[in-house]
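User: Could you go from structure to sequence for me? I need the amino acid at each position, not a summary. Structure tokens:
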């Protein structure tokens, strides 16, 4: 279990999404976030898993005079969960729960209209639902959501960045899986585990929900079919095509986090599997295809040509984002496409594997390397020196090859966003 506090809800959601990796790529998974604090967390989880995001509304029934003390909760559809132990201990007067439930029910209906507008509730019949919040205290809010959803779903998973062990244990018998990043006693409060725990506003929720779901697409490369995920925000002003690193896929949690940051900045993203399913099985045994830069760059070219012909992305300026060996593929593909590619970003990449193509790249290139990734850092310095186009090397202090250190991947995403905003 993690001990350090989260920087903010976005970082918490990114880490939580990595812990939920076994659910990635399933077409029966839906992520439902509890507003408002759970939505920024849920956005990152949904992006990591390639799953749709929506909200499920639950309101805490606070004790009059002590609103932070939950008597229970009410969920969409009228489902209630009551804290019977609290009622007995405090001798709550009869009728109190009804008055509070009526008030909170009205607020629940208001938020339904504010967040979803005319959109219908998500289809969850027979689906695996991952319920996300920014943390649990007593767990009563989450229990109300579980009680309301359980009869209609095939599987219910509760996922939170932080919670006390007793709250997780109480939920474990009611759901199929419980996932938490932090489980500590004493727990103190949910906000204790965040450096930035500012209030999430209604407009923040609407903005995050307005992003369209990622569409899974297939495209041909000769006799093979490669798979990809395309997300096009309304009014997109550029397209970034991602090339994952060795032994990874389009569900790479690090690339998906960076893609999420770019999408919120108004960029369309296309995350591509550079190997087919059968090739991936071979590569797991031999580890040879992941270093076949010629093959990988061919696949990336296929994706770029496909995107240029698709109605949703045709005409958008194109950039490449490559990680590890995918960075070499991105540079080779950029060299072959010339001015059709406007920018390249490499994260912990192996640009040296691009060979002679480095001198032919026409797109401004940003090389991002962890300061502690010394061997790769030296290779990137040599690659930068070999390039004739404008290239910059950004060294992230305290970071290793996978940028797993606190704040490192967030720094990568910020650098990539600024580079693409400047170039696209």
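Assistant: Here is the amino acid at each position, in order:
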């Amino acid at each position: 279990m993690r001990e350090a506090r989260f920087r903010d809800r976005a970082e918490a959601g990114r880490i939580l999404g990595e812990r939920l990796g076994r659910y990635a790529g399933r077409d029966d998974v839906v992520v439902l976030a509890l507003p408002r604090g759970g939505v920024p967390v849920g956005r990152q989880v949904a992006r990591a898993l390639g799953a749709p995001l929506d909200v499920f509304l639950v309101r805490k029934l606070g004790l009059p005079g002590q609103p932070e003390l939950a008597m229970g909760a009410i969920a969409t559809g009228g489902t209630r969960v009551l804290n019977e132990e609290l009622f007995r201990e405090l001798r709550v007067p009869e009728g109190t729960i009804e008055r509070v439930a009526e008030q909170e029910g009205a607020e629940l209906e208001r938020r339904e209209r504010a967040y979803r507008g005319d959109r219908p509730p998500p289809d969850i019949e027979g689906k695996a639902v991952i319920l996300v919040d920014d943390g649990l205290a007593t767990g009563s809010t989450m229990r109300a959501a579980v009680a309301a959803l359980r009869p209609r779903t095939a599987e219910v998973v509760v996922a939170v960045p932080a919670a006390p062990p007793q709250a997780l244990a109480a939920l474990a018998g009611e759901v199929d899986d419980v996932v938490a990043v932090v489980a500590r006693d004493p727990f103190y409060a949910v906000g204790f585990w965040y450096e930035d725990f500012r209030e999430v506003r209604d407009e923040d929720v609407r903005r995050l929900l307005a992003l369209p779901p990622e569409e899974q697409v297939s495209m041909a490369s000769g006799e093979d079919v490669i798979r990809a995920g395309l997300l096009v925000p309304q009014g997109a002003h550029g397209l970034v095509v991602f090339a994952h690193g060795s032994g990874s896929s389009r569900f790479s949690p690090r690339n998906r986090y960076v893609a999420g940051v770019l999408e919120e900045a108004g960029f369309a993203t296309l995350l591509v599997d550079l190997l087919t399913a059968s090739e991936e099985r071979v590569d797991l045994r031999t580890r040879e295809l992941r270093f076949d830069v010629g093959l990988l760059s061919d696949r990336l070219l296929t994706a770029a040509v496909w995107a240029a012909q698709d109605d949703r992305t045709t005409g958008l300026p194109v950039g490449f984002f490559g990680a590890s060996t995918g960075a070499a593929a991105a540079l080779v593909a950029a060299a072959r496409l010339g001015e059709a590619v406007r920018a390249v970003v490499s994260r912990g990449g192996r640009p040296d594997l691009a060979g002679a193509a480095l001198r032919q790249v026409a797109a401004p290139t940003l090389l991002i390397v962890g300061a502690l990734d010394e061997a790769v850092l030296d290779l990137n310095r040599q690659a930068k020196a070999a390039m004739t186009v404008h290239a910059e090397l950004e060294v992230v202090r305290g970071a290793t090859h996978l940028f797993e250190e606190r704040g490192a991947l967030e720094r990568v995403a910020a650098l990539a966003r600024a580079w693409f905003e400047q170039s696209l």
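One structural detail worth keeping in mind: The mean pLDDT is 91.
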